[in-house]
Amino acid sequence: MSAGVSLKHRVIMFLLELFVFFACFRECLSSPLDHVKGYMLTDRRADAFVPEITPSASPQPFLPLLAPSPLSPFTNSSVPKLSGLCILNFTAAQSLMSMTSIDCWAAFAPLLANVICCPQLHATLVILVGQSSKDTGVLALNRTLANPCLSDIEKVLEGQGAGENLKQICSIHPSNLTEASCPVKDVDEFESTVNSSELLASCEKIDPVKECCDQVCQGAISEAAIRLALKASDPLNMDVPHVLPEHSTRVNDCKTVVLRWLASKLDPYRAKEVLRGLTNCNVNKVCPLVFPNMRHVANSCWNGINNQTACCDAMDSYVSHLQKQTLITNLQALDCATSLGLKLQKYNITRNVYSQCHISLKDFSLQVSGCLLPSLP
């Protein structure tokens, strides 16, 4: 029995590493060559955190930009039976839906939820509603259509290999397709309320690195969302700095409406790039891991005990539990390592157990040989 379980575990881990490799490879294929220009990792040991910068004249790697998705041969597509009530155009977004079904592949959707699946699914919902506004003139579905549309979206994705419980994994509800508490959903009213030309100029193309620091597009979205939210309380008071904290939910709902408007002005691929770039800024701000009670680590590693083997065994067990929760990014791993370090300090563990026990950033995530390279994020 144990041999069978061990073999099954090895097969699952092999498939996971294979999927992560393909996912990383797909991202490389879809990313501009600027992302790889001038960088070459010469050392992939756990302690090699600094990439070597090669001369600008060095040849660039050949990237087959038109290569097909690496997972397409492994996914079984079927034609789902849809409600016939949804007004969203799935055919026009066929490429987007296919990419989402791959990013939310059933076998790994729970593990990839935080970094890959859920950001892509949320972007897909925004783009579908935004594109439909070009025909309907509204940036939201009514509550009658939201339910069958969400059900149809699930069926289309499941028919292409996505997980069957994406609503639970990504906390998706029919309200994600409506205006929720935002008081503005008509395109004409939207464009008369916000500075739409400035908004589009700020967000039609973003640098995924600079945007997280400069927040040019995010600032424009926030300002537009606040202006929309204020219309619910006092149409004559459009003074953005006076928005109240209790309006935060309404502002967040209006941000979704703003994103749909942007998606209606961009082609689906460009809209996806912008939305994913904005999401990544938020994803990388926090550590998504849940830290369980660590008293056993404290008992084994507190400064009065010199049994390094027992301490490292406890740390390895604890970190192993963390890494099984979800796949995370480099920046999230940095934040998680910092958060765990602070918790260790609260238990009066002031020794550098990371160094003593050879724990690196890679140990905080599932992708042991995948995208979480031992390099600067």
From TrEMBL:
Residues 83-232 form the SPARK domain. The keyword Transcription does not apply. Keywords: Signal. It comes from the Eukaryota. Residues 285-358 form the At1g61900-like C-terminal domain. Residues 1-30 form the signal peptide. InterPro entries: At1g61900-like, At1g61900_C, SPARK. This is Uncharacterized protein isoform 4. It comes from Theobroma cacao (Cacao).
